[in-house]
Amino acid sequence: MRVNPGGQLAPDEVVGRDEFVGEVWRILERQSMVLSAERRMGKTSLFRKIEAEAGTNWLPLYRDTESISTPAEFTQRVLEDLLPHLGSFDQLKGWFDGLLKRLEGVQIGAVKFPSIPDKEWKPILQQAMTHLSATQGGKRVVFVWDEFPWMLQKMSEIEAMEILDTLREIRQTRGNLRMVFTGSIGLHHVLRGLKEKRYANAPFNDMKRLDLPPLEPDQAESLARALLEGEGLTWRGDTTLRDLAMAVDGIPFFIHHVVDQLRVKRIDPVTPESVERTIVEAFRGDQDNWELKHYFSRIPTYYGEARAKAVLALLDSLAAADTPLPFDQLVNRVSGNHPGTDEEVWREWLDDLIRDHYVQREETGEYAFRFPLIRRWWRWHRSLG
Amino acid sequence: MNKPLYLSHFTPSMMRADLLERLFVQREDMLQRTVERVADSILKKTKHHDLFVGPRGIGKTHFISLLHNRLTQRDDLTKRALIAWMREEEWGITSFAELALRILRTLDESYPPLGLGKEIAKLYDLKPKDVEAAAERLLLNALDGKTLVLLIENLDDLFLQLKDAGQKAWRAFLQNHPVCTVVATTPALFAGIQMQKSPFFGFFRTEKLEKFGFEDAVSLLKKIALERGDESLARVIDSPHGRARLRAVDHLAEGNPRIYIIFAQFLTEQTLDTLVEAFMHTLDELTPYYQSRMKELPGQQRKIVEYLCNYRGAAPVKEIARGCFASHQTCSSQLGELREKGYVKSTESGRESFYELAEPMMRISLEVKKQRGEPIGIFVQILRIWYTQPELSDWLRRLGDGQELDRTYIAKALELAAQDKVDPKVKPIEAALSRALEAKEFGRCRDLLEEWAAIEPSPGLVRQVAHWKVEMLEGNFAAAEKFSTGICKANADVGRALLVASLIFQEAYQRVLDVVGTDAEWNPQIPEGNTLFVYSNRGIAFSRLGRHAEAARDFEKLVAISRNDVRALSELMRCYDRLADHKSAAGIARRLVKLQPDEPNWAMDEMYYLKLAGRIASARKSMLHLFSETYSDKAVVRLLKVLNGQGSLDSIVAAPDFDQARLDSAFCILIVGLAISTGKFESQLLLHALSVVVNGGALSKGDTATLVLLACYLLSADGTKDIDSVMDKIAQSGREHEANLATAILLSVPFGKKHGATESQLADWQAKLDKGFSDYPPSGGVAMSLRLLGAYLEWRRSGDARVVMRLSGEERKLLREMDGENIEIPPDGLLASPLIDAWFLKNAGISAKDLATSCPRDAWRMYEARQSGRNRMV
Question: Which residue of A38, B75, B690, B849 pairs with A357 in a disulfide if CB–CB is 3.0 to 4.6 A?
């Protein structure tokens, strides 16, 4: 297996996710889901694996929605994705043929694609789902909409609210359809924006929330082994693989990067020292190949300019502390420069930081950086010693 | 007759593939890896996306051309892929739909049997909003299960035009249909892939195309010469003379292959006229690009770039700030932004950052445009470097009518040559030599010296000294001696100084004295540096020959001139020691303490010599100074003072930074240390102290482990049963402190004997050690020490000499030491420092009894206070 940081993996190259995939299917048996994951955790590759390994009763339809900017376009893409599978859904096919006769479309080779008028997207989407759901004996369809929050952000607020409500209504009334919303930014950011515009609904409260974690140590070690072997590198020392895997917190993207750099620099055999050197060089490098700066630069985007300073103060304090901090102690450390901020506000921001994978709460309730590697980089980047 | 050779400055894609292959330098491994990754993408479901970053002229197109060539040569790949090579001049694309159309058109040109033309034409009849989906579908149909290999140049330009919407649509296509692998190039990283909110953030595996090193440049120019059939030029390039000239030109090219290509033509063009014309054409094509890049910059940043264009080389921030009338802070932040934008690059040297232009072509382009009508600076400099003054003069004489341009350039180069005091080819060699010496690359050093000899047949002083240095560093002292003899002819003083050093390293001390004489006064006329050199080496010679008084005389003179010379001071101190002048030795030790306060050995020396000089009070003061300097732990220092009768435990407790845990630890370390140094101890107190030290993590210091081990020995001799659990802990930590523990085990025998241990007590000790290490088998030194201890005891018990003879010679030597009578614990660096402290307590004449009698009382008070649960002692 060759290193491929950032690229698209073949389903059989997705290492250590078998249990998680099993969990996804168990959930989908019951309900739809919102899957969150820190960037570069291997979300898209996971869906490719889910797609490839779906049983005979399921039809997963993956769609990256980031380029979609209107509900009509969304509806059109949903229909396009269903088009190759119409043979399995008789009732839907009948309805679709009728739709094509009524609407204009584009003929490419033997296939005609409908062009959805802006004003008709909702009934067309609802009808399509009704006919899809009603088809007996067919497969159960699960729509996987990647970068879903991005699509919502591109739409007008009214459109975003409307599409969220419509999709919820479809899930409520067509019980055998499943949807998976996912994306590299948290849906809570989109929802907060909509709530500021008086959107009072809870469009995901029927969906199971699931977080894609880093790889377990054994799995991360397996990935490191597979990549080193794939690149023809050897290693010295019993703990080298484990050290490599754990130095980057078991995050597949970084494991790929470390092995890639070891290969580029022709370091063979690999040792714990060369792994450590590679990580330090990644921190210092001009090109930020590990894309660590975004953990810092996205703060104003996520939390708004007004809150960014306080959020940075929270993260600085957690990064600087050698042990996890209880809430009171953490707030004491940051409130000096942010007087007048209510305790509840700090709690809310910390909750957001947890949802955005910066922070985690220990079993005892204290707060700490979720990923030691990111904490280490943060300390370096922010010159915290 | 030389072959004509077409070398495109800009579009290697227009050159023959086989020629490109033959001219390929430095990046074979990178290319091979890229081919493998593309093959991986074609043959499997995995899809790689690579982005290569490098400034203009670095060889990006050459790289992509070769990649295309190698991919198309593999049948296994061409059967399963369609390759679309999107040339850099093709942009003008503002949406993903247009990009898809451009890809389709490129495929149509490369694969006419696909018959895409008609289908593409139909797309132009669609409504704009439907084109994207239709083009996508057409592309997927065309691929028909094959992989699309997209080779894209100047991805930054494409992204700029696609804007956010186009980028998102393209990425969505790639995600929705994993049928495409992208290999792209860009002159610099750009926002479209660097910003977290950008769709392609983190999408590409980026790799930098490094600039050419000197050897790469030599290789490229040689290949070009051979391609032209000009073998004599290839030989010149490879000769020391040619390499010396190329080395001097190298800094003008700054590792940019495109400049080397131009330079290659320079070497073979018959007249400068055609070359200048071709070069100006090259610059004409580049200039609009660089001018537009300059326009994109805010005023302050433009000023900085202009400054760096004129500066040539890397400039420190301070200098740039001064040159641009900006504050250091402003300049730093502007440079940071310029670096992000890819205009400049930085190099760290110590704490300082140096900045230079990221693209050397930018400087040349802007410089030439500014000096329109004037001779091109880089050409004049190349002429000056490549030809000698007589060659240039001869050339000038041979010029005929109508060669005015050549005349201008050669005259200018001669003008430059007249201004140069030193041949410009020498400086780069000196710099390279210095780097090679530092890296101890002696083979390279010799090559460089050969280059130097080629341009300057008669060696100057600097080169001869360089030769001498190489031989010395390689350990060829006799050869170095020969060079120093030669140097004597050029500069007697320098030569003699080097000769002396060569002799010192050959341990030919008497010959040193023969060379420099033994007169007290050295010739005061010679340069100061050499005086120091000779005094130092002659002093060493005297010293090694046992002539300590004369040695002291030389070192005294030396330190009178160079007051802070640590090596000379330490030599002088040893001389005084040999002369039994302990008072003077202590005085020098004091100076050393002041010079190097972090070096505890000087303080130990001072204490030692003060004691020998009979100045007990001063020795005591010095000891406290040593403790306060060497122990960062204030609690230990304070406690020591208390134990020396200075202050009380109450004053420690009253200190603002009082910390009971620290004091506990310090207290316990001292209790253990005192027990060892005095041989008197309260076993319960000692056991408690051991427990605190062991459990409190104080074992992180190897010296403490040793201390504890020895204390355990004492306890063992005392018959204390609780020792086992402590032993167990020590054994666990044994691996970390192997050297100290091994020494401690060896020392425990003389130590025990000194304290009257019986044979059976020693046997019991051995059993406890074996038990302690049974669960944590020791390795290395500890294992050897245990084996020696066992052998020693068996030998003492049985008297069988064969037990000893089974050991190696080295081990037998250790065994003899182990068995020695009245063995003093030596002040050896291997020993634990508290042990040394204890040794010095005694040697400094401080009564251990005094300490021992004052200590237990206070110690007991403290111990009892803690036992009764009080945190503070009143």
Answer: A38
* Structure-block tokens of residue B250: 């190298």
Which tokens hold the place of A91? 């009732």
Instruction: Characterize the bridge pairing of strands A359-361 and A367-369.
Output: antiparallel
Minimal Cα distance from B206: which residue of A? A289
CA triple B36-B41-B44, angle to 5 deg: 110
Tokens coding B457? 């047949």
Give the DSSP letter of residue B54: -
The pLDDT, as a whole number, for residue B851 is 38
The number of beta carbons lying within 10 Å of the beta carbon of residue A195 is 12
The ipTM value here is 0.76
Identity of the residue in A2, A10, A108 whose CB atom sits nearest the CB atom of B141: A108
Chain B closest-CA separation from residue A201 CA (Å): 27
B355 touches chain A (CB under 8 A): no
Q: What is the pLDDT of residue B721?
A: 59
Coil, helix or strand at residue B59: coil
Checking phi first, is residue B372 left (phi over 0); if not, alpha (psi -120 to 50) or beta? beta
Six token digits for residue B861: 């008070």
Give the pair of three-digit tokens for residue B268: 């073979």
- A5 and B205 in contact by Cβ < 8 A? yes
* pLDDT at position B372: 61
- The interface residues of chain B toward chain A in range 608-627, judged by CB-CB distance below 8 A, are none
- Helix (H) or strand (E) holding B130, with range, is helix B128-143
The amino acid that residue A282 corresponds to is A
Closest listed residue to residue A11, CA positions, set A40, A43, A45, A44:
A45
Q: How many CB pairs under 8 A join A and B?
A: 119
B33 contacts in chain A (CB < 8 Å): 263
CB–CB of B701/B633 below 8 Å?
A: no
Contacts of B45 in chain A (CB under 8 A): 10-12
Q: How far is B388 from chain A (nearest CA, A)?
A: 41
C-alpha gyration radius of chain A? 23
For residue A67, which residues of chain B lie inside 8 Å, CB to CB?
96, 165, 168-173
Residue in B closest to A10 by C-alpha? B46
pTM of model > 0.95: no
Digit-coded pLDDT (tens) for B466-503: 888 889 888 888 888 888 888 888 777 778 878 888 88
Cβ atoms of B544 and B509 within 8 Å: the answer is: yes
Strand pairing partners for A59?
A141
Q: Does B163 touch chain A (CB under 8 A)?
A: no
Question: Which of B383, B186, B358, B376 has the alpha carbon at shortest distance from B281?
Answer: B376
SS3 category, B658? coil
Three-class DSSP category at B318: helix
Cβ-based contacts of B208 with chain A (< 8 Å): 287
How far is residue B209 from each of residues B80, B201, B221, B253, measured CA to CA in Å? 29, 20, 19, 16
Instruction: Chain B: give the shortest CA distance to residue A285, in Å.
Output: 11
> Tokens in use for B19?
């020629």
